[in-house]
Amino acid sequence: MAWTYTESGPIDAPLLLFVHGGGVGGWMWDRQVEHFRHAHCLVPEWSEQDGTGEDELFTIEKSAEALIRLAERKSAGRPIVAVGFSLGAQIVMQMMSDRPDLLSGAMLGSGSIYPASLARPLVGPLISLFYSLMRSRKFAALQARSLYVPGEQFDTYYAHSLGISRAGLIRTVRESLGYRLPAGFAYSTARLLVTVGEEESGSMRRSARDLAQMRAGSELVVRPGIGHGFSLAQPEAFNALLARWLEEGGLLPRRGSGR
User: Fold this and answer.
1) How confident is the model at residue 51 (pLDDT cuts 50, 70, 90)?
2) End-to-end CA, the chain
3) Which helix (H) or strand (E) holds 197?
4) Global pTM value
5) C-alpha neighbours within 13 Å on the C-beta side of residue 227
6) CA-CA distances (angstroms) from residue 160 to 27, 46, 65, 114, 150?
7) Residue 25 and residue 43: Cα distance in Å, rounded?
8) Could you give the CA distance from residue 127 to residue 193 in angstroms, rounded to a whole number?
9) Pairing outcome for strands 15-19 and 80-85
10) Is the pLDDT score of 250 beyond 70?
11) Nearest alpha-carbon partner for 152 in 223, 225, 235
């Protein structure tokens, strides 16, 4: 499967890899890229269109493989920190499991590690039934509000949603709902920060708690008053948290300081 990406910042700085969630694009990280312009920021993006062959179909495993190759090529031996949201967090978990020594740090936001066995078979019928409605501007506005998409990015979000095929949407949702944390995750050497919204589902909060407990020295942050979408809902607080965590771990120098 093919990925595109954008990059910015000094190429000799530590690499920050921002992996977006399903239903949104790399644009969700615009405020983070602006804030961390003293880092080398890499923002990959995939298409949720259905491919014409098996090799083009989206899977979390193939996505992790592609991003491992991309990160290795772009980092040139420098520290790599991956920041993932939702489905993007699951891809980062897979990267950590497949290559336990690759990442120096990982921030995992709202990533489920427990398969939703009962819900997964219903994904295809429900999306097929409501697909036309989901493409309406009014429905998109409701969805954008639940994801905390800012008003100035709504047109971008809506255009992105119109570009998602029915088959592509079904596949990515099934992938996320069926994801189970691989055993290899326990061997990752990455410093770990886990975040979740206080108003997210019980399963999502349990995933965050259990992820953090798997690794000694991990940090768990439960953001009060929000649901699914910390970086979009509270970008300033998100950036401050990530910056503090990176600086405390020696993963990124403070802005304005020497390298």
Assistant:
1) very low
2) 36
3) strand 191-197
4) 0.94
5) 10
6) 10, 11, 24, 28, 15
7) 9
8) 33
9) parallel
10) yes
11) 235
